[in-house]
Amino acid sequence: MVKTNIPAEYEIKEVIHQKQYLINGELKTWDGKTSEVYSTISSTDEYAPTLLGSIPDMEEKEALEALGAALKAFDKGKGAWPTMRVNERIECMELFVKKMQSKREEIVKLLMWEIGKSLPDSQKEFDRTVEYINDTIEDYKQLDRDAAKFEKNDGVYAHIRRGPLGVVLCLGPYNYPLNETFALLIPAIIMGNTTIFKPAKHGVLLITPLLEAFQSSFPKGVVNIVFGRGRAVAAPIMKTGKVDVLALIGNSKSANALQNQHPKSNRLRLVLGLEAKNPAIILPDADLDLTVDECIAGTLSFNGQRCTALKVIYVHEDIAEEFNKRFAKRVDALKFGNPWEEGVKLTPLPEPGKPAYIQELIDDAREKGARILNKKGGQHSENYIWPAILYPVNKDMRVYKEEQFGPVVPILTFKDIEEPLDDMAESNYGQQVSLFGKDVYAIAPLIDTLVNLVCRVNLNSSCQRGPDVYPFTGRKDSAQATLSVHDALRSFSVRTFVAFKDNSLNTETVEQLLESKLSNFISTDYIL
Ligand code: G3H
For the Aldehyde dehydrogenase domain, which residue ranges apply (predicted)? Predict the structure, then answer.
């Protein structure tokens, strides 16, 4: 039995049967097959998943229609959007973000129900996304100002800008269904590409309130939104070979499967944020209070369902006992509850099969010699499994090898710092690391090595993506291309320029082009 006590403003008063989809600027009505959307959060005291609504279950036909619309809007480089003046594209984006802001409450409520994210984190996801869009607009203005000039080398003038790549297929993850999807979609759109976007497997209904904003803010065909399974919708689009960029945040299996469908791999640009197994390395002189705080946030924020989560802890054997004791106590003191409850840190898992998967990892580790250090570790409720701290973990255990993406924390000890360094070098992943310690003589050479194994070394701090102005990327199977407010604009564009030899004909022609303002590309106007 679960006591629900749902505040009136967060109750599900009516289900959302999401029938609309956006193709070629038209909000079409779907009358085909649909899939029901359930939340693992119960609305009744007797536990039962809550029906939130339904979404279209589209297939190849609609997927190809969306692709056709995106191709038409790009129109072989002639389309209104890719040739538009930068300030006009910015105006469209400003209109969109204004409309989006009016949907905050609806989207925050759906984030809580669809993916179980706590109220403050759901609000943060929304606000961070709005800020990301506004920052992107500012950065693009700067990019444009920097390009509003001519340079001359060896008698050749050049007017260099960044141009769009073509058609972008955008697929986001369920843990940040708004923020990370938009971290791909927004820079792709603003740089002049045309897009097809399919929401993640959870966190789909929360796109519903934004369909009209997309439709009315951008020219037709620039943003096309379809719903359905990746295999049914994304695969047929890739098979055509007409997608120029695959932008995906998710796991490398889906990314590989999709990129392999593309018949001309050399023509496909990849912007990928994939899985990771970020380690925490705790040196013998680490400040334990701070380390425990950061490891709690790093391993268990949003129940560990973050690509940047700390997924394995290496603690020096001299302090392992003390760290383990304090850490276990803190994990069991965390508050579990529904997302809107005051002070909750652990919330229901949106994937119904996740508790069973985590249980498998626990069973496997125990069979191979690990213990659960915390009293509540592994306790099941209808939609949750309490984070188990597993110790001592070894390399044969599944929890060491697999990205758990959920509430279970493997701990290993080390004597020699080469042990975690070797493991990181052998790992398939290379996103971030957290290093805890004070002695600069120990830390300095470690930093110099770690920066070559991952792409962000967090000193006495948990791993995280933000602030979004910092580069978000990884090595090996963890990422391809770099995201950040600034880097994403680069990832979704290519340098392209007009060059001319210095002679009177060219000087006169270019002067006329500038004066007449007939070209949208050749321009030295400043956007303020
Ligand atoms: O799922 C991976 C996310 O990029 C993590 O982002 O560090 O902001 O939670 P975050």
Answer: 39-493
